[in-house]
Amino acid sequence: MTTLIGNIIALAITIICLFLLLISFKFAVITYVIIAYLVFLYVVVLHYISKGKIDSDLWMSFDRYEREAFLNFPIFVNFPVVSNFLSNVMNTMRIIGFIWAIAAIIKSEYFLSIISASYFFISSWIIAKTAPNLYMVDGAKSGNLIAQELVYGLEKVLKKKDHYDSTK
User: Fold this and answer.
1) In this structure, how many other beta carbons lie within 10 angstroms of the beta carbon of residue 69?
2) Side-chain half-sphere exposure of 156, counting CA atoms within 13 A
3) Cα separation, 150 vs 156, whole angstroms
4) Burial class of residue 91, CB neighbours in 10 A (0-12, 13-18, 19+)
5) How many angstroms separate the Cα of 3 from the Cα of each of 8, 38, 97?
6) Which burial class, exposed, middle or buried, applies to 108 when counting CB atoms under 10 A from its CB (0-12, 13-18, 19+)?
7) Domain range list for the chain
8) What is the pLDDT of residues 66-99, one digit of tens each?
9) Using N-to-C axis directions, what is the helix angle for 25-51 and 2-19, rounded to 10°?
């Protein structure tokens, strides 16, 4: 469900920016890029703030794999529904941003093209860290050892966190 809502929100932002084409192409692209980078900055800040959102007793119960998983995916551990939503918004905006970059090249707006296309690459790491259930599980199933360690640690973290939250 969060996948659908995230995609709809990203498409709504895109449609608003398409209406801004009536004003000017530059204005529409700049608006889209600003919104995309603001969402990116919000998620990055949330990622780092969420790392500190854990009780010391729970943290002390984690082993090495669990600590690594928590530090890599704190938004997902603390806010799983929100993390899937944000990941889908950013991923859809990333793909549409690449289309805006191509349109900017056609319009000879090379600087806007570079900024828009760079979002595609810059946002990749935080998208994967925001929703590991969407991006890491397939790698773990196909035999990627690093992904297997992270998914294993993440599953243990989620179980311990659920148990810890239920006893509070």
Assistant:
1) 26
2) 18
3) 10
4) buried
5) 9, 20, 18
6) exposed
7) 2-167
8) 888 888 888 998 888 889 899 999 999 999 999 9
9) 150
In angstroms, rounded to a whole number, what is the distance separating the alpha carbons of residues 109 and 119? 16
Distance between CA atoms of 131 and 151, rounded to whole angstroms? 11
Classified as helix, coil or strand, 123 is coil
CB 98 within 8 A of CB 116: yes
What is the spatial distance between Cα 80 and Cα 9, in angstroms, rounded to a whole number? 18
Q: Is the pTM for the entire model greater than 0.70?
A: yes
pLDDT of residue 162: 84
Quote the pLDDT of residue 39: 93
Question: In sequence order, what DSSP letters do the residues of 58-105 get, joined into one string?
Answer: HHHH--HHHHHHHHH-HHHHH-HHHHHHHHHHHHHHHHHHHHHHHHHH
